Amino acid sequence: MYSSDDGKRKIYIDDKNRGKILTFLKSEKGMMKKFEHIVKLLLEHPPGATRDIYGRENIEQGCEFVTAMKPFPGSIRNSRIYCQHHHRKDNEQIIITAELLEKKKSQKLTILEKEIIRRVAAYNYQLKD
Q1: Is the dihedral of CA 88, 91, 97, 102 positive or negative?
Q2: Nearest-angstrom CA–CA distance, 118 and 105
Q3: pLDDT in tens, 103-129
Q4: Buried b (16+ CB within 10 A) or exposed e, 100-109
Q5: Please, which residues bridge with residue 99 across strands?
Q6: Directed axis angle between helix 31-44 and helix 18-27, to 10°?
Q7: What pLDDT, in 10s, does the model give residues 56-73?
Q8: Is 76 left (phi over 0), alpha (psi -120 to 50) or beta?
Q9: Are 1 and 10 within 8 A, CB to CB?
Q10: Rounded distance between C-alpha atoms, residue 44 and residue 75, angstroms
Q11: Reduced to 3 states, what is the DSSP secondary structure of residue 55?
Q12: Bridge partner list, 114
């Protein structure tokens, strides 16, 4: 878990997909560093300030809280880490990195990406600090 200094923003990694996500982030030079940069920005700034590397994937009702981290937007890799983003009591924000898409191949969302977004929306998490 990552947490902001004031404890109002927290980022978790899904237990079930942790291995796949971390293996991917460690597989290429600079990938983990880029992920940690995104995490730092999300912990220090409101999400709207990071639109180019983090944004909503609201494709339909029920998916309003699904977001995606974009470590290398516009690059050949163009990977996505799909997340759940929740606003809780006292302005606390929780982001859970849920599923990895190693390479997004088109500008528009494909059937595969929509399936991932719907699956991430359906996850029900029990958070542990």
Answers
A1: positive
A2: 19
A3: 988 888 999 999 999 999 999 988 765
A4: bbeebeeeee
A5: 82
A6: 120
A7: 998 999 999 999 999 887
A8: alpha
A9: yes
A10: 25
A11: strand
A12: none
Write down the domain spans for the chain: 2-122
Lay out the sheet containing 2-3: strands in order across: 2-3, 9-13, 93-101, 80-87, 66-69, 54-56
Instruction: Show the tokens assigned to 19.
Output: 């291995």
* CA pair distance 11, 2, nearest whole angstrom: 5
pLDDT level of residue 18 (50, 70, 90 thresholds): very high
The residue whose two tokens read 């991917």 is 24
φ, ψ of residue 123 to 5 degrees: the values are: -65, 140
Residue 22 has phi, psi (to 5 degrees) of -70, -40
Q: For residue 2, what are its two tokens?
A: 């990552």
